[in-house]
Amino acid sequence: MSAAVDDNTYAELQEIAARYPEPRSGLLPMLHLVQSAHGRITPEGIEACADILGISAADVSGVATFYTMYKRRPVGDYHVGVCTNTLCAVMGGDAIFERLKEHLDVGNDETTGDGKITLEHIECNAACDYAPVMMVNWEFMDNMTPQSATQLVDDLRSGAEVHSTRGPRVVTWRQAERVLAGYPDGLVDEGPAAGPASLVGLDLAREKGWTAPDPDKGSGAAPGLETGSTTEQSRTEAVEEADTSRAESETMAEEGQKSD
Ligand code: FES
Fold first, then answer.
1. Strands 134-136 and 78-83, how do they pair?
2. d(CA 137, CA 55)
3. How many CA atoms lie within 13 Å of 115's alpha carbon, on the beta-carbon side?
4. Is it the case that residue 138 has pLDDT exceeding 70?
5. Residue 128 alpha carbon to ligand 1 centre in Å
6. Domain covering 78-173, topology
7. pLDDT above 70 covers what percent of the chain?
8. Which fold is adopted by the domain 7-66?
9. Is 197 in the pocket of ligand 1 (CB under 6 A)?
């Protein structure tokens, strides 16, 4: 049995919907607010969103079940994600995930008995320059190892203050969900932002004197992608050629089926 949506949460859901010219555009942050209030997406939360937006509960449910950031089961105080996508996996993400499953005695997408940690393997966070990467409530933990990962979850479970390597101190999952709903917690400027590995390209460009194209002069497109007549012409020819070859191979396949 899940909780009803209280008056304050309902009013905030309405407030989020009112931010958008099309109220339905507010559904994603509204679902984050439901998670902040209920610790997961509840049937009552779905009904409230549908009611406010004038859409069906099935429409809301379709969105809530499509995106993996929306959870139908209660999440612990800290959602701990381990990137097991290609680069992180080969750099140690798989080993970290295995170690944490064993250390916490949980499987993927499960929560520890004390309700503190939900462990999940996650896809690329566009932080491959710090692989292997973990996230706690969507804050980055860079260059992790099985040892630092177990220390991290032990710290979280003990209530020690934990800081993201490129962001603020870690808050609870429900608090972080409220931020994702569009209610700032005042921590946005806390901690470092971009790290050295992400700035290598910028440093190199400065060293070489490279600058971005002036948007007021020309297309600003990368070399080879200009919209000049020669390039445009060759691109059109390439598309036509590709279409012709595809049509030819489809025709040949059809003729082959007929003769079978
Ligand atoms: S593969 Fe892990 S952040 Fe990209």
1. antiparallel
2. 30
3. 5
4. yes
5. 4
6. Glutaredoxin (3.40.30)
7. 83
8. Arc Repressor Mutant, subunit A (1.10.10)
9. no
